[in-house]
Specification:
This protein has two helices and 14 strands; from the N terminus they run ββαββαββββββββββ.
Length: 210
């Protein structure tokens, strides 16, 4: 499960590309906090702390403190530079600790099939749409494939999920299987209405109110 990381943020007055560059030059990342029918707030977050929370602690939820006021927020969207190395902006959506959200998490295969019968491993689903508490988002859904055989694919309904986690895709969809070369792949359409993130209205631009 991803860790709830605490970060002190600063209010941000300037908006636009030039203002954002000045913020980043100070070792900060421009961001916006919105949601729960409250005012949109432009903020700056310490770049090193945010980078550590994302890359090392795999945080999906933060507890931010702004002028002494603490709020729990979901990292809704991260924008990166053109090389994909440096964060340039972050969108933070207000949530309650007991609130359920919809997010996308990766599928992590564990183990190796003991026998393949000449088939090759095929993984149609590399990520899943899930619903869970905002403070209990798993890093990944782990799938043990050590006992899988050619005639027994693993479907969504077979997954062992963390407590409180619900997968939004159909239970009949194939997550991973042993595929005979030349065989037709099974369909992998996503669940109807399963969005990649929290259920909310469109995100506001800097300076906008909901």
């Amino acid at each position: 499960m991803s860790e709830l990381v605490s970060i002190v943020v600063q209010p941000r007055t300037g908006t636009g590309t030039r203002a954002a560059k000045l913020v980043r030059a100070q070792g900060l990342i421009p961001g916006v906090v919105y949601g729960h029918k409250e005012a949109v707030v432009n903020v700056s977050l310490p770049a090193k702390e945010l980078d550590h929370a994302i890359r090392v602690k795999h945080a999906r939820t933060l507890e931010i403190s702004l002028d002494g006021k603490k709020e729990t927020v979901l990292i809704r969207e991260l924008q990166w530079d053109y090389l994909g190395k440096e964060m340039v902006h972050v969108d933070l959506f207000r949530v309650s600790k007991d609130e359920k959200v919809r997010v996308t998490v990766p599928v992590k295969l564990v183990g190796v099939p003991k026998t393949s019968g000449g088939a090759v491993l095929d993984q149609p689903m590399h990520a899943l749409h899930i619903e869970c508490l905002a403070t209990a988002i798993p890093d990944a859904i782990k799938v043990d494939i050590s006992a899988m055989t050619i005639d027994a694919p693993i479907h969504v309904g077979d997954l062992v999920l963390p407590d409180g986690v619900t997968v939004l895709e159909s239970k009949d969809m194939t997550v991973v299987h042993l595929k005979v070369p030349g065989a037709e792949p099974e369909p992998t359409e996503t669940a109807e209405g399963a969005g990649p993130e929290v259920l909310t209205a469109k995100k506001p631009k800097d300076g906008e109110e909901e």
